[in-house]
Amino acid sequence: MATAFSAPKLAAQPFSTISPSSQDRPLKIPFLGSTRKLRCLGSSRLNLSRRPSGPVVAVSDVVKAKKPTQNPSLLITKDEGLELYEDMVLGRAFEDMCAQMYYRGKMFGFVHLYNGQEAVSTGFIKLLKQQDSVVSTYRDHVHALSKGVPSRAVMSELFGKSTGCCRGQGGSMHMFSSEHNLIGGFAFIGEGIPVATGAAFSSKYRREVLKEANCDHVTLAFFGDGTCNNGQFYECLNMAALWKLPIVFVVENNLWAIGMSHLRATSDPQIYKKGPAFGMPGVHVDGMDVLKVREVAKEAIGRARRGEGPTLVECETYRFRGHSLADPDELRDPAEKAHYAARDPITALKKYLIENNLAGEAELKAIDKKIDELLEDAVEFAEESPLPPRSQLLENVFADPKGFGIGPDGRYRCEDPKFTEGTAHV
Amino acid sequence: MSLKFFAHFLFIFQVYISVFLLIIHLQFHFFEIAFLFYFFAGAKPMAAIFQGVGAAATLSSSPSNSFDSNNSVFSPLTSFSVRRGASFAVVRSDGILNLNPKGRRAQQLISNAVATKADSAASSSSSKPGHELLLFEALQEGLEEEMDRDPRVCVMGEDVGHYGGSYKVTKGLAEKFGDLRVLDTPIAENSFTGMGIGAAMTGLRPVVEGMNMGFLLLAFNQISNNCGMLHYTSGGQFTIPIVIRGPGGVGRQLGAEHSQRLESYFQSIPGIQMVACSTPYNAKGLMKAAIRSENPVILFEHVLLYNLKERIPDEDYICNLEEAEMVRPGEHVTILTYSRMRYHVMQAAKTLVNKGYDPEVIDIRSLKPFDLYTIGNSVKKTHRVLIVEECMRTGGIGASLTAAITENFNDYLDAPIMCLSSQDVPTPYAGTLEEVTVVQPAQIVTAVEQLCQ
């Protein structure tokens, strides 16, 4: 693990932890896109002998090692394990409940679900402090939940109620929470990356200009493979590396941008390689394995906290559902879907916990039940919450409502009672 | 040229003082006697009279206003000077009647705009002399003062640091405040504007400079989607106290892409405020107000106005972001303008006054939202409106302003609103052609004549 990060800037080699896809082959076959033949699952086992030694271990390898009962090389403690499990189950169950509610007509518009990618969100965000910031895209429900936004708030927001985290004004694609430092929720891809860079800049500014000595807030920017062909991505990689901003760029490479396969859209599909081009380490990790993601995240976040600069982490992951609930998802090869379904991160973690005697079936089932109840409560809360009244229409357009200007009668328009009622025309 | 100007100024000033003192004596009914006395009293030293007037003036609300009152009341004196040839009775009555209500209102307008500190009123009854500077220096002064006042204010842009800004607005700031507070960015408008927005959301108060306003077209995504909308979309959780500024407008043969007027493109974005500065006084005032505002503000400067010189007060002041500025009170027609066109209008006003018209010139300053109070009062008085702008004809600020006036003040209009804008033509390089795309004073004169038939 140390190799990826301690290497000098320009020579930083991308470090990958798993399967054949990580090795530097000439351009041909790094990823499992639907146009490629699926790799046989057994090949990952063959890698045992070739795998560089280090703290990151494949889940399957640990299982196969048949170590004595002490399990000295476990990656997580029991509490951590349960925390990770609970967070991933919350994410999965929440998204499933979203789909249900959508088809029942409780929410509308574009809803993008995160099923299958939970390992990335949990693996990264659970290492953050409250003051660290997270910036996401439209696929942001689970990032919000992992960061600590209550499920009630997220569900109400989806239902468009005034008790939602954004008072019903944001919706599925714009989750914000100033308390938990979740800075969005952006609908256009790539739009959040400069905002994340700005948040990281703030952190550096606080430390160096405002002299808040302990300010080591880190920002995580999550975005997808499609975004990696966008100008904002490259511009921000440049600026972050230039100024050594405390930011981690997390690419959730789920191989598809709606119906556009990553391989059809990108000249060099190996996104992690683009990091060293800007002078930051680029790391590839199996995004279906929460423990691996967590290890990489620890290192990347630690780097940022110490002021060593940004990191580009590419998580190879997969979304089990379509791009959004409106996407029929007909383009993807069922075999590919099945392959990744077999690598479900929740199942994998469950297996790991049980086989390493970190938790029992009953405990995990209890967590499942607890999450189900939590979600039922969230749905009920959202259902019963009031819809935003008309008076809310004009309330947050300006932080300082004098911005509506001076009316013909000489008074500021915001003093007009029609403004507080929401019936004024602006 | 400045000497001639100063002489002209002094002469007008004499008359002003005479009439001003005259008003004070009106109540004592020593009309004719007082008038004759003070007419000849104009020979006294100007400074003494000015200070005396400032102290004794019943009209000015505070001594610090006396400087600004000078600016506001100054212009109507041109009408006095013109009509002096006619009978004095006319001048006096007109002058007095004009002076009181408008003078008071104009001073009220500015007293709202001036951040009068409690001690400045109690201090010496005379205003401080002020200092003279160019418009870009005024912007720099405003920026520097705000950066001194609040350590969270920072500047980002291309060549703002070591180079001092391509129009020298940020000169010297990097040496004083460091490279992180005055950040030289790579050429990535969309991203560094987004970065400014992210920084604003997390507690800083950035001032983002577009080297030329036209370059901010590249940042349109961030300005429209994030800058304007995120306060609302987040349900009020994040404020974005960012200032986006830069020079725009048609310069001297800069070519089409460097001569753009973006105010028309940005005006529809909900959640932002737009202001345009035109004098060193309002440049500094608007810069400071924009930085202090919690709303995102776009400050439009003009490439050709950076070297304007004016004397501005020493004390701290801001210009209200939502107010318009009365440049020249008048009776016959309301001319609404902003930025560089203000000077074309004032030039046309000289001609118009010589021809016997009395235009009221208002610099709207606040492009979004419009100050409907100042504009409305003017329309109610003159019943004729001419809008002179540098924006494009289609969908420009003038078009919006026409709609707003028609909507609100249609009953007060005696004639359709005339709007003079730049032609819908990419600004050509050739000087002769470029001149024709922009509104010239002669056109303004013709339009007023047409309007006042």
UniProtKB/TrEMBL annotation, chain A:
It catalyses: N(6)-[(R)-lipoyl]-L-lysyl-[protein] + pyruvate + H(+) = N(6)-[(R)-S(8)-acetyldihydrolipoyl]-L-lysyl-[protein] + CO2. It comes from the Eukaryota. Residues 87-388 form the Dehydrogenase E1 component domain. The keyword Oxidoreductase applies. CDD domains: TPP_E1_PDC_ADC_BCADC. Keywords: Oxidoreductase, Pyruvate, Thiamine pyrophosphate. GO terms for molecular function: pyruvate dehydrogenase (acetyl-transferring) activity. Its EC number is 1.2.4.1. Its cofactor is thiamine diphosphate. It holds the Pfam family E1_dh. One of its GO terms (biological process) is pyruvate decarboxylation to acetyl-CoA. The pyruvate dehydrogenase complex catalyzes the overall conversion of pyruvate to acetyl-CoA and CO(2). It contains multiple copies of three enzymatic components: pyruvate dehydrogenase (E1), dihydrolipoamide acetyltransferase (E2) and lipoamide dehydrogenase (E3). Tetramer of 2 alpha and 2 beta subunits. This is Pyruvate dehydrogenase E1 component subunit alpha. It comes from Hibiscus syriacus (Rose of Sharon).
Automatic annotation (TrEMBL), chain B:
Its EC number is 1.2.4.1. The chain crosses the membrane at residues 6-24. Keywords: Chloroplast, Membrane, Metal-binding, Oxidoreductase, Plastid, Potassium, Pyruvate, Thiamine pyrophosphate, Transit peptide, Transmembrane, Transmembrane helix. Its main location: plastid. It is an enzyme of class 1 (oxidoreductase). Gene3D superfamilies: 3.40.50.920, 3.40.50.970. GO terms for molecular function: metal ion binding; pyruvate dehydrogenase (acetyl-transferring) activity. It is found in: Plastid, Chloroplast. It catalyses: N(6)-[(R)-lipoyl]-L-lysyl-[protein] + pyruvate + H(+) = N(6)-[(R)-S(8)-acetyldihydrolipoyl]-L-lysyl-[protein] + CO2. Residues 133-308 form the Transketolase-like pyrimidine-binding domain. GO terms for cellular component: chloroplast. SMART domains: Transket_pyr. It comes from the Eukaryota. Its cofactor is thiamine diphosphate. The pyruvate dehydrogenase complex catalyzes the overall conversion of pyruvate to acetyl-CoA and CO(2). It contains multiple copies of three enzymatic components: pyruvate dehydrogenase (E1), dihydrolipoamide acetyltransferase (E2) and lipoamide dehydrogenase (E3). PANTHER family: PYRUVATE DEHYDROGENASE E1 COMPONENT BETA SUBUNIT (PTHR43257), PYRUVATE DEHYDROGENASE E1 COMPONENT SUBUNIT BETA (PTHR43257:SF2). Tetramer of 2 alpha and 2 beta subunits. This is pyruvate dehydrogenase (acetyl-transferring).
